[in-house]
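Sequence, please.
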């Protein structure tokens, strides 16, 4: 991402200014995650698409602001997620609700959503406002779906994909589309990048769910197996359930003991469910890559392609 290093540095500086508030507690809570410096995958994708589809390889002020808005929305969702899932760490540091409390964390998340909405409105583009506003609605839908299906061993792959779209892929799909809208691109280009973002988002979520089973907490920046422990059904678990009925009993008991959780992880690892989940992730990433290769090969798409391949290589 060499070509957007300057933009990403400026983005980090602007995020601090955009969350300014006179309330020191709210500011400290909001600043907690931004100081942790996430991977900034979503803003990077927006900035790279902006360069790819522009006539002269440039990024407009509005597209830069959109990248910042997307990261604020993403961060707000993480603050709320950590409260719902009782996650103690995020991006390698203590989560907001453990530093303060649940009430402050929820208010901090609400504050970030409100700030993103204000900056979104100031883009003065009704189509972009409509497109990005849907993300917040989808977040809520995804959380409700996840909540009502927790510890439900009858969850299907189709339900998992739908929930993953709402919770993760919608943000990327809508942000990528909004990037094209700001470029005044044709509706076909807008739809291409909506699908690109959707497939990237689904692939990213499936990979995240694999890493929840296979990685250590230090590498994840959050507690390992937290999804499993909270009864959040992920691709590896759903695929393993088809082969190991013993998992059903553990789920019914809601993984009451640490040894039960560890045993469940070992059972999942011994099936081919992780490889099948990798295949699902790769299928989505390859669909995104094909959009770039088939329709935008005449442009300098190398960096966006490399960034897309990077997402897949996280599990290899």
């Amino acid at each position: 991402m060499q070509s957007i290093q300057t933009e990403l540095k400026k983005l980090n500086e602007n995020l601090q200014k955009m969350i300014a508030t006179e309330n020191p507690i709210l500011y400290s809570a909001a600043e907690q995650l931004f100081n942790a410096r996430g991977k900034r995958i979503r803003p990077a994708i927006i900035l790279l698409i902006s360069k790819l589809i522009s006539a002269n390889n440039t990024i407009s002020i509005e597209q830069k602001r959109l990248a910042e808005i997307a990261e604020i929305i993403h961060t707000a969702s993480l603050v709320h997620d950590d409260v719902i899932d009782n996650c103690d760490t995020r991006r390698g540091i203590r989560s907001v609700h453990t530093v303060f409390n649940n009430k402050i964390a929820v208010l901090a998340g609400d504050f970030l959503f409100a700030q993103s909405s204000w900056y979104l409105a100031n883009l003065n583009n009704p189509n972009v406002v409509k497109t990005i506003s849907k993300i917040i609605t989808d977040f809520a839908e995804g959380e409700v779906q996840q909540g009502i299906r927790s510890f439900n061993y009858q969850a299907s792959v189709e339900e998992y994909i739908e929930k993953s779209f709402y919770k993760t892929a919608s943000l990327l799909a809508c942000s990528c589309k909004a990037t094209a809208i700001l470029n005044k691109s044709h509706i076909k280009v807008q739809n291409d990048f909506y699908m690109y973002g959707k497939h990237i988002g689904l692939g990213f979520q499936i990979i995240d769910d694999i890493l929840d089973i296979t990685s250590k907490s230090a590498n994840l920046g959050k507690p390992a197996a937290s999804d499993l422990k909270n009864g959040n059904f992920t691709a590896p678990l759903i695929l393993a359930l088809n082969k190991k009925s013993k998992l059903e009993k553990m789920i019914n008991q809601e993984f009451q003991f640490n040894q039960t959780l560890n045993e469940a992880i070992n059972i999942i690892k011994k099936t081919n469910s992780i490889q099948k989940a990798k295949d699902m992730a790769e299928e989505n990433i390859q669909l995104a890559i094909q959009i770039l290769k088939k329709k935008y090969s005449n442009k300098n798409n190398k960096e966006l392609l490399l960034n897309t391949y990077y997402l897949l290589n996280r599990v290899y």
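Residues 192 and 208 are 24 Å apart (CA to CA).
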